[in-house]
């Protein structure tokens, strides 16, 4: 499952703007944090671009095996 959520960082905690589904209880989640810094004029436009980017990133992300390790030297040999 992939979902884009808004949250506020306060006193060392992320406070979500909405509750997560109870089915996620106890599951490990991966977060991608994108700080919002908008001017009042372009706030909606920037939010839309951020939302589209996150949707694109989720669409083209691939699951890697837990033991996967990137090897720069091996990648450059090709």
Secondary structure topology:
Elements: E1 7-10, E2 13-16, H1 43-59, H2 72-77
Task: Explain how this protein is built.
It is a single chain. The protein is an alpha+beta fold and 78 residues long. It has one domain. Helix content is 29%, strand content 10%. It has helices at residues 43-59, 72-77, and strands at residues 7-10, 13-16. Strands 1-2 form a two-stranded antiparallel ribbon. Strand 1 and strand 2 (13-16) form a beta hairpin. The longest helix has 17 residues, at 43-59. The mean pLDDT is 84.
Oligomer: single chain
Categorize the overall geometry: extended
Strand content: 5-15%
Low-pLDDT stretches are: none
Terminal-residue CA separation: 34 Å
Structural class designation: alpha+beta
Q: Helical stretch count?
A: 2
What Rg, in angstroms, do the CA atoms define?
A: 17 Å
Number of strands: 2
Q: Give the helix proportion (percent range).
A: 25-40%
Major sheet strand order:
1-2
Order of helices and strands: EEHH
For the biggest sheet, the summary is: 2 strands, antiparallel
Q: Total domains, how many?
A: 1
What is the average per-residue confidence, as pLDDT, rounded to a whole number?
Answer: 84
For the structure shown, list the relevant keywords.
78 residues, alpha+beta, two-stranded antiparallel ribbon, 2 strands, 29% helix, extended
Short description:
This protein is α+β, with helices and mostly antiparallel strands and about 80 residues long.
